[in-house]
Amino acid sequence: MFRKGDIIPLCPEQLGGLPTPREPQEIVGGTGEDVLRGKANVITASGRDVTKNFLRGAKETLRITKSLGVKEAVLKSCSPSCGCGKIYDGTFSGKLKDGNGVTAALLKEHGIRIKNEKYI
Description:
Layout: H1 12-15, E1 25-28, H2 32-36, E2 41-44, H3 51-67, E3 72-75, E4 86-88, E5 96-98, H4 102-109, E6 113-116
Parallel strand pairs: 3-6
Antiparallel strand pairs: 1-2, 4-5
């Protein structure tokens, strides 16, 4: 059960400068960990590279969570930002693969426990 003040709603994609609603986006060439290391990109369904937005949003989310002492994050499943454990495979076909989104990977690297909304 959550108490008042326990939930801090954030959207890394909005924090990274992307609009809502937005075109579908997927990590192409790897996982969120690979994006953080410059080995994969986040691409929209129409082919636009939005990797910089995802990195900016992940870093801003980390800054906020650390400043507030967050220990655990509940993230949106399958998202290229927030997916934890499973993300879309980068083909825009609806297929999933093992991996974390960009923000999920960054939070995890900094010791914040991550889980998706389906298992809270």
